[in-house]
Amino acid sequence: MFIGLDLGTSGVRAILVRPDGSVLDSAEAGLQASHPHPGWSEQDPDDWLSAARAALVALAQRHPLAMGRVAGLGLSGQMHGAVLLDAAGAVIRPAILWNDSRSFAEAAELDRTEAVRDLSGNIVFPGFTAPKLAWLAKHEPRSFARVAKVLLPKDYLAFWLTGILGSEMSDAAGTAWLDVGARDWSDRLLEAGSMRRDQMPDLREGTGTVGPVRPDLAADLGLPDGVQVVAGGADNAAAACGVGALAEGDGFVSLGTSGVLLAARNGFHPDPASAVHTFCHAVPGRWYQMGVILAATDSLNWLARITGAKAPTLTAELGALGAPGPVRFLPYLSGERTPHNDAAVRGAFLHLDIAQDRTDLTRAVVEGVSFALRDSLDALRATGADLPRLLAIGGGTRSRYWVELLATVLGLPLDLPEQGENGAALGAARLAICGVTGADPAQVMTRPAVAETIDPRADLLEAYEQAHADFAATYPKLKALP
């Protein structure tokens, strides 16, 4: 048996997987983030350990015999977070998370530094790890002076499980300290961020083993002695493993809290100016690129909150897909990444009329999110990515209207997988299978069975093409407003 353990921002999810990759059961434990100041987002790493323990113990209580046969545990987790350890391995301060924007000035300074984009393959976004440490050096110098090691969130779980400090390529690629093409820490990038190589954990590929679970902890969690912890991958890289997106032409679009459009790449093809992320994949010798929008279903949930209606109720009121609505929505409620790299821009409704109702607002919101994802697709195509079709995943895909709209806006067929586990936790378990057994990732990380394919509406393609062009032309005007 194998375990996939996924550390998200809102909770930890553990799945128990049979040798053939099918899921026996899963368990979850929730997490909360703290926001002590505007733009700040932090979590206590000890809360991650408590949640991981709760999820694993729940599986052990329900399946003691199966847990006793576990051979490997793979990890997945939220990217970019800074877990700071002192020389004794103790946590110095709460972890600064991926959605924390306090280091925007430090990110801009690093991004302007010579060779940083060339080596990292990316714009330095405020959410990345390097600017967080630059902020710490300036604003919390005593804490900065104590930093002996910097770990990423899931790698802190590996440290707890094994006592070994390490990381892997797909997560390290989001720090702005990694030479993403060479798959190694860059002395030049570390110097730019006033960091040292000895403060970095050892690197391995996502299928590499970290070490065995500590015997005392294994007994506490209902695991046998000798369970190997496998390095795993960053959340989106692991999700790509979970849906079989490994090779050129493979990709998915995710309608989650944020929106992701991911393309697997066989080589390193960065284009930082596009604000496309170019990261190492969790499997050796491969990379992936993705466009990211910061508020996808978050935009719909925001509308649900202010209207007092649940999100499924809002989308159910839309009826059948028709021509673009009269209201335009810019989904920049938390700023935007691809293609604008703009932490300061905020969202807007345009063309509101007294005769309109909440259905018009809902239609505008799902259209605006879809148009923003089309921006990401155009940016990916500019790097040479060829995506003939996409797998559609995430909570937003439960709305048939939204999936049909998105297929039409992207101009691509969208495959809906059969119900079941297809996310980062499954990808982590698949990485564990490969790491422990030596199996070929291409044989283990297969695409899920497709329940249905949603094709673009040919009769609406031209109308939505024009509507997207109008949407794209609006950003500069919104940005120019005081």
UniProtKB/TrEMBL annotation:
Matching PROSITE patterns:
FGGY_KINASES_1
What molecular function does GO assign, one term? ATP binding
What InterPro entries does UniProt report for this protein, alphabetically?
A: ATPase_NBD, Carb_kinase_FGGY, Carb_kinase_FGGY_CS, FGGY_C, FGGY_Carb_Kinase, FGGY_N, Xylulokinase
Tell me which EC number(s) this protein carries: 2.7.1.17
- The active site consists of 235
Transferase among the record's keywords? yes
Q: What keywords does the record list, in alphabetical order?
A: ATP-binding, Carbohydrate metabolism, Kinase, Nucleotide-binding, Transferase, Xylose metabolism
Catalysed reaction(s) here are: D-xylulose + ATP = D-xylulose 5-phosphate + ADP + H(+)
SUPFAM superfamilies xrefs: Actin-like ATPase domain
UniProt domain Carbohydrate kinase FGGY N-terminal: residue ranges: 1-242
Tell me which residues bind substrate.
Answer: 79-80
The Carbohydrate kinase FGGY C-terminal domain covers: 252-433
GO biological process annotations for this chain's record? Answer: D-xylose metabolic process; xylulose catabolic process
- Site annotation (Important for activity) points to 6
According to its UniProt record, which protein family does this protein belong to?
A: Belongs to the FGGY kinase family.
What job does the chain carry out? Answer: Catalyzes the phosphorylation of D-xylulose to D-xylulose 5-phosphate.
Per its record, how is this protein called by name?
Xylulose kinase
Source species: Ruegeria pomeroyi
